């Protein structure tokens, strides 16, 4: 089943300037993990911001889980799109402990179901013994796992990760990659991962997109979709 369907997406930060995304179309199926590669400034984060609803395109449509979220005269707010996000700096709430951070996005879930869901997420990311700790009491890798648990807790249709490994040292990165892949596959999660590192894509992703910067004078270079061997 198609989880994300993007058609003819166009976007620029200023109407007069060069577009960042130009006539971009793309489909993502259930359980698929796609890497988003491309040089700095090519529009990787912008693509995630458009899917999550933090930016509005100038043209094109986006559907998530069969429901149009962006189209002509249609714009569904970010909180109603069923999109989970993990950022480079994890963005955990420093005044909340691990359990409270994970339960933050569960306000729409019946109260009685929240505690078991938090426990389930703690087990999924192997953080059962850290529920009462605060973010500053955790390592980088542990913080990342909490951020992942928080994003997965509300059962999003898709998970968007923006440079999730960039704050981790090389040794940790290797083990976290394997762990992330196992967590995502266990949850049958559909996922897009922005990264600079081709090794991340080789280790985790089924497919990849390479974003090319659009240079007005040379015509639109466009975005390339590529299936990994
Ligand atoms: N809020 C903004 N206002 C104006 N221009 C912006 C804004 N955010 C990003 N840009 C520009 O849009 C282009 C794409 O930025 P984006 O952050 O999507 O690139 P990226 O591929 O994720 O880069 P990086 O790998 O460096 O994170 C860049 O040229 C950037 O300068």
From TrEMBL:
Q: Which InterPro entries match?
A: AAA+_ATPase, ABC_SmlMolc_Importer, ABC_transporter-like_ATP-bd, ABC_transporter-like_CS, ABC_transpr_FbpC, P-loop_NTPase
A Pfam family recorded for this sequence = ABC_tran
Its keywords, alphabetically, are: ATP-binding, Cell membrane, Ion transport, Iron, Iron transport, Membrane, Nucleotide-binding, Transport
Question: What would be one Gene Ontology cellular-component term for the protein?
Answer: membrane
Q: Which GO terms describe its molecular function?
A: ABC-type ferric iron transporter activity; ATP binding; ATP hydrolysis activity
Residue span, ABC transporter domain: 4-229
Q: What is this protein called?
A: ABC transporter ATP-binding protein
- Species in which this protein is naturally found: Cytobacillus depressus
